[in-house]
Write a structure and sequence with these properties.
Strand order of the largest sheet: 6-5-4-9-12-14-15
Order of helices and strands: HEHHEEHHEHEHEEEHEEEHEEEHEH
Low-confidence stretches: 67-72, 277-285
Mean pLDDT: 84
Distance between the termini: 50 Å
Number of helices: 11
Strand content: 15-25%
Helix content: 25-40%
Radius of gyration: 18 Å
Amino acid sequence: MEALPNLSQSERMDHVLHLLEARDHLQVAELSQAFAVSEVTVRNDLTELARQGLVARIRGGVRALQQDQSEAGFDLRVRLEVGKKRAIARAAAAMVGEGEAVALDASTTAYYLALELRSKRELVVVTNGLLVATALADAPGITVLVTGGMLRLSAMSLIGDLGAGVLRTTRINKGFLGARGLSISRGLMDHNPEEVRIKQAMAGACEQVYGIFDGAKWHRTALLPFVPIEDLAGVITDSSAPAAEVAAWRAAGVSVTVVDPGPGRQPPHRPRDLRRAVRKDEAAG
């Protein structure tokens, strides 16, 4: 496991969830070494994740929830680094002109971008994120197109060949995609193969593609690339991104916009719980 010292608690918790997408379980000792914090600190992080129903504690560590137990993966991630994600979203929204067609993936930063786009008019938004679509559902003047496919519960996203097929016949002005990791040699990366396929299809349908992610992602790698740097119109990140890495990407020809989240932290807009809404509708019926 790569060393990641000097992370905040929210960044450590986010990274634990990130690791559990590729591994069945993690040990306290290895997390303590990777984060350069005490085992007591790691146990407190894992206890908080378990309290929120996002992981299951096991002896000496933590394991991923079974798929039918995974209730709130998106719900936690959308509450991490809120100030940074909102600042990135504001900068990205300023790049969108009224009357354009834009693509948003199912990332939490794209969710905040969707909230910023609500004030736009004559906008078409294509997304595979159910909560991204819900954030725009009642926005006047915005048409929302949702790709089809199979529901991936932990991300509240739609994946699979059906969505990718729709995107192959669509032309979109700008796409804004989150990432789990990145490198100059491989571009933007993610772990889940089906999410990667949808992101690749989105990128292929867009005239311009922008990466949107907070500074913690610059310290990470992931399994599968989905957009090489030569296909990026730009990257939007926050001021916690490592200056040397930002400079290297700019030297490679990528426009990198760095935003300052500023002081303070607003509570996030809580996404609508689609599962509760369905159960309520069923009860009413």
